[in-house]
Amino acid sequence: MLEVHHIFKTYEGNLLLNHISFQVDTGETICLLGASGSGKSTLLRIIAGLEDADSGSIAFDGQDLTSIPAHLRDFGLVFQDYALFPHLNVSENVAFGLKMRRLPQNEIKERVVNSLEMVNLGGFGNRGVTDLSGGEQQRVALARALATRPRLLMFDEPLGALDRTLREDLLKELREILHQTNIPAIYVTHDQEEAFAIADRVLILHRGEIVRDGTPAEVWADPKSAFVARFLGLGTVFEGAVRGKLVLSNVEGTKEERWEVESNFGVLTVRSEHEHKVGEKVHLLARPLSFDEGTNIVQGTVADAVFQQDRFKVTLDNGLYIYLPHAPKAGERIEVRVKVECLA
């Protein structure tokens, strides 16, 4: 198990990481998700031993690694640019780390063959890496990392240079490999679809801090903050002022508490886990659900309608957007039902 304790890092007076703490359990894949400059790659380099933190510690299975150099941490790294040696063939690239460890030649050969088969490159050993496609080169980089049988795998934007279809295929394969090997992994990306596809747990970084930590389903269902909701594109985020509390009866006859909130979209009723005062400003999220799934009625004029897969993303002049099965005309006044939730 990897344990990261209170990592703090500044650079030229600027705060990069602010007391970051988390752990990665055996067989767990976590994703560090954030925009450029959020600190995710710096954090990965500190864990790898390629960069020093100003304070804090890194431990694996109880062993403090803070003063242990990178090549002795027994971690595997996979980068976006592959970092392959162009003068070596596929097998020689995969074997490089094993030769550095002075393993017996027969063991090196066996590990190289097994690692290449694991990433679906069996029979590619004698090929030059410069003759391979981008996806194949990334598979070689993964095979090289797997061949050393690392205690932890780390990926820094590994699929950023690949097209969408190839990226989706490699994500599926990578997830299967991680589950098969049971190696804990840290995956760094700015792409939320990539993060949600690969991760058992997502850590969203913003300005050097973890602002949300949970499974993909938990984070999607409950972003907890306006920043996370906006970053993930979950819907329209806006402000409102609390008018008071309502007690409503549902169809089963039980009572439900809702908050009445005044906003630019009208007076809305929302659920909230928090207590509020009358007049308090709150952030709200209107999710772009289908026409009949919401509880609040909002009116607006159609500004745009764009077809996306099997439905239309309809944007109103007030900034709200919703998904509908058919596209209304631009300029048409419509009334829609929306689900609104309180973020804070």
Summarize the structure.
The protein is α+β, with helices and mostly antiparallel strands and 344 residues long.
How many strands, what sense, and barrel or not for the largest sheet?
8 strands, antiparallel
State the low-pLDDT regions, or none. none
Query: What's the helix-strand series?
Result: EEEHEEEHHHEHEHEEHHEEEEEEEE
Question: For the record, what is the CATH homologous superfamily label of the largest domain?
Answer: P-loop containing nucleotide triphosphate hydrolases
Structure, described:
- This protein is of the alpha+beta class and 344 residues long.
- It has two domains: 2-225, Rossmann fold (3-Layer(aba) Sandwich); 235-342, no CATH class.
- It is 25% helix and 38% strand.
- The chain contains eight helices and 18 strands.
- An eight-stranded antiparallel beta sheet has the order 13-12-11-14-18-15-16-17. It has a six-stranded mixed beta sheet with strand order 6-7-8-3-9-10, with helices on both faces.
- α2 crosses α3 (105-118), α2 (90-100) packs parallel to α4 and α3 (105-118) crosses α4 (134-147).
- The longest helix has 18 residues, at 164-181.
- The model has no long low-confidence stretch (mean pLDDT 90).
